[in-house]
Write a structure and sequence with these properties.
It is built from 6 helices and 11 strands. With 265 residues, the protein is α+β, with helices and mostly antiparallel strands. It comes from Sulfurimonas autotrophica (strain ATCC BAA-671 / DSM 16294 / JCM 11897 / OK10).
């Protein structure tokens, strides 16, 4: 078990600290900036920091690595509205991202959320991976507040904003998937040969009931564990060849997901 999770632990070591790099190009029309960096994975999230003065800075945008050119060591960063720390009572600056601002990536990667089908698997993985685990009870509370007994991507982003979680671990069919919790991009996949005797829906939590909204995405109750989380991952990782092969060589009942991939297109 310890050996099988070495790759997951390695990911945590690599992304344990926030990665900072200055903006070297700005494309306001496409809401992207470029940075120069030795190596970075597509999907790693963070934010863009604007320097008002040597002593004062402000976060302007959320940021996700859109692409990385290994030859030039240039990463393209997609920007979006910064959603954490929202408070309508506070004044908002009118600053724009500019050259010399800083992109800070892998923020919150020392804090993790684990989605597992039962208590036994949850604790076996949690005890094997060195990170600051945020208990899924807190995520269940976020889901209840949002009326989503079936978690959707936006719920994980809300969890990230509420508790500064950066990494998401999902156990599915004897594998642990490590994702950026905001972009939902897969960062690594590790084997975890664990026996799954029971399944608690929508995931292991001590919260017995998650409130449901009257309608909308996530408002219906989950009736099966694996298909839902595979669907979420495929929707946000359509060019991931490793995920494609896992599903292709796995349960035939999940083969309907193969049509969603964009491999070779």
């Amino acid at each position: 078990m310890k050996y099988l999770l070495l790759l997951t632990i390695l990911v945590l070591e690599v992304f344990g600290a926030v990665i900072k790099s200055p903006v070297i190009a700005v494309d306001n029309e496409n809401e992207t900036v470029k940075i120069k960096i030795d190596k970075i994975d597509v999907g790693v999230s963070g934010f863009v920091m604007h320097h008002i003065s040597p002593q004062h800075s402000a976060i302007l945008k959320n940021a996700v690595v859109q692409s990385f050119d290994a030859k030039t060591q240039i990463a393209t960063i997609k920007m979006s509205e910064f959603t954490a720390l929202q408070n309508n009572a506070l004044p908002h600056g009118k600053w724009k991202v500019q050259l010399g601002d800083t992109v800070e990536l892998a923020f919150g990667y020392s804090r993790s959320l684990l989605i597992a089908p039962n208590e036994t698997i949850y604790y076996k993985i949690a005890q094997s991976v060195k990170t600051q685990w945020i208990h899924p009870d807190l995520f269940a509370t976020v889901l209840s507040f949002r009326g989503h007994p079936t978690p959707i991507k936006e719920d994980f982003a809300a969890m990230a904003d509420a508790s500064s979680v950066g990494l998401l671990f999902i156990y599915l069919n004897q594998k642990v998937y490590t994702l950026d919790i905001k972009s939902f991009k897969i960062l690594s996949i590790s084997d975890a040969k664990l026996k799954q005797a029971k399944v608690k829906l929508p995931f292991y939590t001590r919260v017995n009931n998650i409130d449901a909204a009257w309608w909308g995405a996530g408002s219906s109750r989950l009736d099966s564990y694996e298909p839902h989380y595979y669907e979420l991952m495929v929707a946000n990782n359509k060019t991931n060849k490793q995920l494609y092969e896992i599903i292709k060589n796995g349960n035939p009942k999940l083969h309907y997901l193969l049509a969603e991939f964009e491999i070779g297109k």
